[in-house]
Design goal:
single chain; flat; three-stranded antiparallel sheet
Length: 946
């Protein structure tokens, strides 16, 4: 028996109920089928997947979610598969009602006598049992591990399932593969037939494994660690659960340390390996040293096996290795990463080091050589550290941050001097952060010793704190690092500290200060030039401090956005962002499309920022479907890579789009993620995106007090230029509008005034349109129609300067509402009709409803959306003609047979007979069997025409 065949046995203990994760779609499918069953339509579900994938856990969770129903549950067992009717006896023994006489023997006599039950009687008995039990409510029939059930039970099950027509029965059959030879052909055909719902379970996703670790009492795994666990276990919940309980947390988090196999699984693998000869053992161990797969020739040379094919044949038969097609040169591979882990970790340290040393001499690839040299190292090695650092810096120059971070980490571990070790560790942290591996970077930064260079230590910890969103701590650490740094002896470290201070200043809303730090960092940069993120941040700081034109000019010489070289993507992205804030939306879209297309191989922050900026641009342009794709994609990446500093922005933008469409649940989910960032108020710019999203959601729901509660906290950031720069977040018109609705006119005036002044100074038409609209509402509320009309006219003029459909439609809606209230209905209708058309095209449901309400108040019905197609009647039209099955049932009933006798004669359930008779009565206009006799007669062979 192979490793995969018996893995289920080793982990057969049921998992804790509270450790269930994922399977949302599968649970929803089962619950939908159960709803159909309750309505009278039987359903059959095939639940398939390898051992340990979670079939039993899914069924258990589903059963926990339904109440007031009868559950008949049985499970096959490998050592009982020869016991006749054993599974059927389990089902019968759970019946809440007396069992049919045909099955009574299953609960009265010893199991060894079950073979005396005739096969057809077993099928009829199960059908009768289901008919009786469902009289008290719907029935869920579960057969778990059906591939180990006895043939007699499976045949009876097949017989019964085929004859369920209108029964309230949900049958769930769980097995590894419907093609297993143990399954009867009839049941196999039934399970793969079209009406059967097939739920093939895959492994849990990395995110679900992270949730699983949390539910098992461990810390939630970061994305990099959960992704590695997923790759190692293929997401198998049982294997993952075993490792989460077995492996120390530091090993789970350290992706550079190999994960083991679960102990029980490893025992099985090693037992299989011990049964092989010495040549096979050496070959399998050699393959494990070379990786998950390798060329057979290389493995044979490493194992010193002259004739590898016989050894390989034995390894394949025991399930330890498999052959893979690779053209001319044969390759071998492990069937599962856990098999590789079990073999590799069983090799003793001395033998493992010797094998890696030899492997480094056999391979040609530079990276692979370095890997084997690292794994063979037993202590500091200056030459190896230099080789790793050189390789890593070459990789970093081409944007390969993941590999660079790993090599720098290894270089730090084998460095000979403490100073070099610390510097390499800091470089590794930088690479890991640029690759989005925040948790790993934090662990490594915390490992920099207290006795290290204080400037270096403060810089790396401040950098990590900044990415984690702990901006105040970041500022303190980085400022201290700047003061501690010898800027003449180490200008590179000083430049990097100044760069991070620039980022922190932007997040704090002090854009002018950020621009100064960015310029200082550029002056200190080495001959290699400033980092790409520094140039981006410099331009962003200029934009947030009112100098967007200056920033755009610094990036004016770029080629066409779609062919901008990788080294200039940062400038292209920054220019696109500044154009977005400056109302050049077509230009922003062009730049940001180029940035997104070319950012796939750059750093995680640049990828996130480009997708988020493009989403905001498309949202303002009215391309909401496309905007939402980019917004939710960037939000997902921010979550996966623990980019706390950007989560309020990415999730906030997603929530704003969804709120305007009235998708309350999804908008609320994003809003929770946007607001659920520790120390959110420490980063006012990002915080503003999050609370603005809350404000827009409340505005779409018509809740002005909630808008005010959300946005009032931003008033305390009046000194932060980034938070108050027009065109960035523009929360002031939203707050002003809500204050007007609540009658807080003076406060609304105080909010709008400074914002309008800044917007006029920058020439921001979209911001001025929104402010003028709010100003018009304020004047109207103060009963000053002349000023209100002038404000709305200004809003119309500004909105016409920028392609912002939603902003323009909001102006038309509020202007039309105002005109209606002062009695100018014809003008009001024109404004409201225009707003209605735009809101309909955008899918802005809540605002479209407002347009309809105002048009109705004007006495004018709006042109509605095209009517949907009418739903067809699900029931067949009754035309007085019976179906062949209805005719057969009616004939037997007319002859005087009872429902149970008819069910036995036609091999159907009693419930199905009742269903057909009910339909027949309705079609023929009768109410009893007497009517059948009159219409059909005892010997009649055709339905009545009357």
């Amino acid at each position: 028996m192979t490793t995969e065949d018996t893995a289920h046995d080793l982990f057969h203990a049921p998992p804790p109920g509270d450790a269930f994760c994922g399977r949302t779609n599968e649970l929803a499918a089962l619950q939908q089928d159960f709803a159909d069953v309750c309505a009278g339509s039987p359903r059959l579900v095939l639940l398939e997947g390898p051992g340990g994938i979670g079939k039993t856990a899914l069924v258990r969770r589903f059963l926990d979610s339904v109440h007031g129903t009868c559950v008949l549950h049985a499970s096959g067992e490998e050592n009982e598969s020869a016991l006749p009717c054993g599974v059927l006896a389990q089902l019968v023994g759970q019946s809440p009602l007396p069992v049919p006489e045909t099955l009574a023997g299953l609960v009265r006599v010893p199991q060894s006598l079950h073979a005396n039950l005739p096969p057809l009687a077993a099928g009829f008995g199960l059908l009768d049992l289901l008919s009786e039990v469902q009289g008290k409510g719907p029935v869920i029939l579960v057969v778990d591990d059906a591939h180990w059930a006895d043939p007699e039970s499976l045949n009876a099950l097949t017989f019964a399932l085929r004859r369920l027509r209108h029964d309230r029965v949900l049958a769930i059959v769980a097995l590894r593969d419907p093609q297993v030879p143990e399954l009867p052909d009839g049941l196999r055909r039934l399970l793969i037939d079209t009406p059967t719902r097939r739920l093939a379970l895959d492994g849990l996703s990395p995110g679900e494994l992270a949730a699983l670790s949390l539910r098992l009492g461990s810390a939630r795994l970061p994305h990099s660690a959960s992704r590695r666990l997923h790759s190692h276990t293929h997401g198998n919940p049982l294997h993952a659960r075993a490792l989460l309980g077995q492996v120390p947390p530091d090993v789970l988090l350290d992706v550079a340390t190999p994960l083991p196999a679960p102990r029980s699984y490893a025992m099985l693998v090693l037992a299989n390996l011990a049964d092989c000869g010495p040549a096979t053992q050496r070959l399998v161990q050699a393959v494990s040293v070379l990786g998950l797969s390798c060329r057979l020739r290389t493995a044979a040379r490493l194992a010193r096996v002259a004739q590898p094919l016989p050894a390989l044949e034995r390894a394949v038969k025991t399930g330890l290795l498999r052959e893979t097609p690779a053209g001319v040169a044969p390759e071998v591979a492990f069937p599962h990463p856990l098999v590789h882990a079990a073999v590799y970790q069983d090799i003793g340290p001395a033998q493992r080091a010797a094998l890696h040393t030899r492997a480094a001499e056999l391979v040609d690839d530079e990276y692979t050589k370095l890997r084997h040299r690292v794994l063979a190292a037993t202590g500091p090695d200056e030459q190896l550290a230099d080789a790793l650092a050189t390789c890593a810096r070459r990789e970093a120059a081409t944007g390969q941050w993941a590999v660079a971070g790993t090599h720098l980490r290894h270089a730090s571990r084998v460095a000979t001097s403490p100073r070099e070790r610390d510097r390499l560790a800091v470089e590794a942290v930088e690479a890991l952060l640029l690759d989005g591996r925040v948790q790993e970077a934090a662990e490594l930064a915390n490992g920099v010793p207290e006795g290290a260079d204080p400037a270096l230590r403060g810089y790396v910890r401040g950098y990590v704190a900044r990415v984690q969103g702990r901006t105040e701590a970041a500022w303190t650490l980085l400022a201290d690092a700047w003061e501690q740094c010898d800027r003449e002896r180490d200008p590179s470290l000083a430049a990097r500290a100044a760069e991070q201070l620039s980022y922190a200043a932007v997040m704090c809303g002090r854009a002018a200060v950020a621009a100064q730090w960015a310029e200082r960092a550029q002056r200190l940069s080495t001959a290699q030039g400033p980092s790409r993120m520094l140039r981006f941040n410099h331009l962003i700081a200029l934009g947030l401090s009112g100098r967007a034109k200056e920033g755009i000019a610094l990036a004016a010489d770029l080629p066409d956005p779609m062919i901008v070289p990788l080294k200039s993507i940062d400038l292209l992205l920054a220019r696109g962002q500044l154009k977005l804030w400056s109302d050049d939306l077509p230009g922003a879209r062009q730049d940001l499309l180029g940035a997104v297309a070319n950012c796939r191989t750059t750093t995680v922050p640049l990828r996130l920022l480009s997708a988020s900026a493009l989403a905001q641009t498309l949202h303002r342009l009215g391309a909401w479907d496309e905007a939402l794709i980019h917004a939710e994609s960037s939000a997902s990446i921010a979550d996966d890579t623990d980019q706390s500093w950007l989560k309020p922005v990415t999730h906030g933008v997603s929530a704003q789009i969804l709120a305007a469409r009235g998708h309350w649940e999804r908008a609320s989910e994003h809003l929770r993620s946007a607001l659920d960032v520790p120390g959110g108020a420490e980063t006012p710019v990002a915080y503003a995106y999050a609370v603005c999203a809350r404000g827009y959601l409340a505005d779409a729901r018509g809740e002005p007090q909630e808008v005010v509660d959300a946005l009032r906290p931003l008033l305390r950031f009046s000194e932060q230029d980034g938070v108050n720069e027009p065109g960035v977040v523009d929360w002031q018109p939203l707050l002003g509008d809500a204050l007007v609705q609540l009658g807080e006119f003076d406060e609304a005036e105080a909010v709008l005034g400074p914002f309008e002044e800044r917007a006029r100074a920058r020439g921001r038409h979209a911001s001025l349109a929104a402010a003028a609209r709010a100003r018009g509402n304020l004047a109207a509320a103060r009963r000053d129609p002349k000023r209100a009309q002038a404000a709305f006219a200004r809003a119309q003029d500004h909105a016409a300067q920028v392609p912002v459909p939603f902003g323009r439609a909001r102006v038309e809606l509020d202007h039309g509402s105002f005109l209606r209230r002062i009695g100018r209905r014809s003008l009001a209708i024109a404004q409201l009709q225009a707003a209605y058309t735009t809101m309909t095209a955008l899918g802005a449901g809540p605002y479209r409803a407002l347009c309809l309400r105002e048009l109705n108040a004007c006495g004018r019905a709006a042109p509605d959306l095209p009517a949907d197609e009418r739903e067809r009647d699900a029931a067949d039209a009754l035309d007085g003609t019976l179906t062949p099955q209805e005719l057969a049932v009616a004939r037997l009933a007319a002859q005087g047979l009872t429902n149970r006798q008819i069910a036995t004669a036609l091999a159907l359930s009693v419930k199905t007979i009742e269903y057909h008779l009910g339909h027949t009565y309705a079609k023929l206009g009768i109410s009893s069997r007497i009517g059948l006799v009159r219409r059909l007669g005892p010997q009649s062979s055709s339905p009545s025409a009357g």
